[in-house]
Structure formats: structure tokens, C-alpha cells
Amino acid sequence: MIVERARAKLNLALHVRARRPDGYHELETLFAFVEHGDEIRVARADAPSFTIDGRFCKALRAEDDNLITRAAAAFAADIGGGPWAIGLGKWLPVASGIGGGSADAAATLRALAELEGVAPDDPRLFAIAERLGSDVPACLLGRTALGRGRGEVLELVAGAPGMPALLVNPGVAVSTAEVFRRWDGVDRGPLGAGPLLDVARAGRNDLAAPAIAIAPVIGEVLAALEGSGAALVRMSGSGATCFALYDDDAAAEAADRRVRKAGPGWWRALTRLTG
Ligand SMILES: C[C@@](CO)(OP(=O)(O)O)[C@H](O)COP(=O)(O)OP(=O)(O)OC[C@H]1O[C@@H](n2ccc(N)nc2=O)[C@H](O)[C@@H]1O
Ligand SMILES: Nc1ncnc2c1ncn2[C@@H]1O[C@H](COP(=O)(O)OP(=O)(O)O)[C@@H](O)[C@H]1O
């Protein structure tokens, strides 16, 4: 049995530059990852199976088209192997801007590569990831990186490993496609250059305004985090999850207590950035 962590993805900044003829948008984004995530378990089996458990499993049981089973089918077709028994521990909220499905698909590809003796940097894995979704290549790489294109053109940058991070989701699922559809079409310029946190602080998330128009509670989450002494507060991706980064554990723990009071029903995860 191979067990692989599907780490949550954050967009420390997300600049939308233009609409593309293919229906996607040209992005400049800073991808970072945290220790907390879903769990993927794979093992050889006589027949294929897929099981889901964990706090957010119910949101997916109804979904027959899971990014995990699509990743496994693509691996079998392009590389070979199987059948496999695959299990998902679903601990990240679904459709929430932190790459839950994308991270699961990427972790499935990594786990199957290890099980089947395929090198983790085999280019066929990235080719499959690109077909599965815009964020899957970044999640497969799993390192702090600048993303361009749809999000699949990646350039490694120095991260801030160990930095405390508080993730908060108010319990509303937001459609990525709908948020992009509502983007106002205004190119507010590129990301700056320099150290990660400086670039992130000087940056923005251009999807925040359209996401807040769809789910105003996102604004309440941001307000609760903004008063918490954070080094950076922002919505991640197309939302609804927001995050705050802290210079020390005491500030992060105090913020967690403050947010618990502001939104007793909100999902929270106190974790750390990885490299
Ligand atoms: C917004 C971001 C930021 O990292 O993340 P999430 O909010 O999903 O976490 C990503 O760009 C989401 O990537 P991903 O979730 O893989 O999107 P996909 O499945 O490829 O596309 C879902 C839909 O989002 C829109 N989309 C996605 C990416 C992009 N660069 N432009 C777009 O317009 C398209 O309408 C597309 O049909
Ligand atoms: N294993 C999975 N975990 C989460 N979402 C999944 C999964 N498989 C398919 N999906 C679908 O993919 C979308 C979320 O994928 P993702 O790109 O990770 O978005 P987000 O970053 O908003 O979670 C949702 O529409 C969800 O229904």
C-alpha cells in the first residue's frame, strides 16, 4: 500500500491578465502548498475499486466523475499497470479554491508512479496532469512556484517553508468557472519581482471581487483575518477558502481562536507552508 499526502494549494497572489480564445484565462499566480491535505492510498488489486472517507466525503459520494479515478484511468492508458484499489481520505473542503481535486489527482499520479516503479519526474505524468486540469501540474510538482498560462507553465521560486498558515472556509462551494466568468476583464498588471512575501503582499487576487459577489460571506472571513496581525491575508484561487500567514506560532494560534469566535461554523486548518 502506498500512502500519499495531497497537500492543499494556496495562491499567494493570482493576477488574471486576459481572456483566452480557448475559454481559459491567462494567469500569473504564486503557488504555495501547506502540510495539511487529503490522503490517497493505492494498492494492487484483483479488481479496481475506489472508496472515500474523511470529513468531506459526502460532498463527493454523489460525484461519479472523480479526478482521482480519471487520473488512474489516464495512468493505466498512458503508462500501464492496474487494477488498483484506491482510497481517498477527504479532509479538504470541496470546490474551495485550495486545489482539493487537483491535489488528489496529482497525489494519485505520484502514488501510482511509486507503486509501479515509474520515476516521479517522468514527463508522461506531467502530460497527464495537464489534461486533468489547470492546477494539476502545479500540484504534481508540489513546490512553491510561479504559474503562468492556464496555471500549467511553472517556474520554481524560493518558498517560506515552516511559515504558520491559517486556512478558513465558510462552508460555501464556489464554482471556479462562474467566478472566472464574472471577472471584470480589467488587466491590473503583472506580479512584481523579489522575495516571495514581498511579491505576494504587493500582489492581489483578481478573483476575490467576483467570488465575493457570489458568496458575500467570503468578505466576512477576510475581515475576521485582517484584524489578526497576519503577514498576509487573501482568498485562495476562486474561493471560498481564505488564508492568513503569520510570523510566529503564537500569532497564528491567537488568530485561530479569534476566527473560531467570528465564525463558529467555519472550517479552519492551522498548518504550515512547505518549501
Ligand atoms: C482558479 C484556480 C487558481 O489556481 O484554482 P482553484 O480556484 O480551482 O483552486 C485554477 O486556475 C483553476 O484551475 P482548475 O480548478 O484546475 O480549473 P480547470 O478544471 O482547468 O477549469 C475549471 C474552469 O475554470 C475556468 N478557468 C480555469 C483556469 C484558467 N486559467 N482560466 C479559466 O477560465 C474555466 O472556465 C474552466 O472550465
Ligand atoms: N477528489 C476530488 N476532490 C475534490 N473535488 C473533486 C474531486 N474529484 C472531482 N472533484 C471536482 O473538482 C472540482 C474541484 O476541483 P479543484 O480544481 O481542486 O477545485 P478547488 O481548488 O476549488 O477545490 C469540484 O467541482 C469537484 O466536484
From TrEMBL:
The active site is at 9, 135. It catalyses: 4-CDP-2-C-methyl-D-erythritol + ATP = 4-CDP-2-C-methyl-D-erythritol 2-phosphate + ADP + H(+). Residues 66-142 form the GHMP kinase N-terminal domain. It holds the Pfam family GHMP_kinases_N. One of its GO terms (molecular function) is 4-(cytidine 5'-diphospho)-2-C-methyl-D-erythritol kinase activity. Keywords: ATP-binding, Isoprene biosynthesis, Kinase, Nucleotide-binding, Transferase. Pathway: Isoprenoid biosynthesis; isopentenyl diphosphate biosynthesis via DXP pathway; isopentenyl diphosphate from 1-deoxy-D-xylulose 5-phosphate: step 3/6. InterPro entries: GHMP_kinase_C_dom, GHMP_kinase_C_sf, GHMP_kinase_N_dom, IspE, Ribosomal_Su5_D2-typ_SF, Ribsml_uS5_D2-typ_fold_subgr. The keyword Cell membrane does not apply. SUPFAM superfamilies: GHMP Kinase, C-terminal domain, Ribosomal protein S5 domain 2-like. PANTHER family: 4-DIPHOSPHOCYTIDYL-2-C-METHYL-D-ERYTHRITOL KINASE, CHLOROPLASTIC. Belongs to the GHMP kinase family. IspE subfamily. Catalyzes the phosphorylation of the position 2 hydroxy group of 4-diphosphocytidyl-2C-methyl-D-erythritol. This is 4-diphosphocytidyl-2-C-methyl-D-erythritol kinase. It comes from Sphingomonas canadensis.
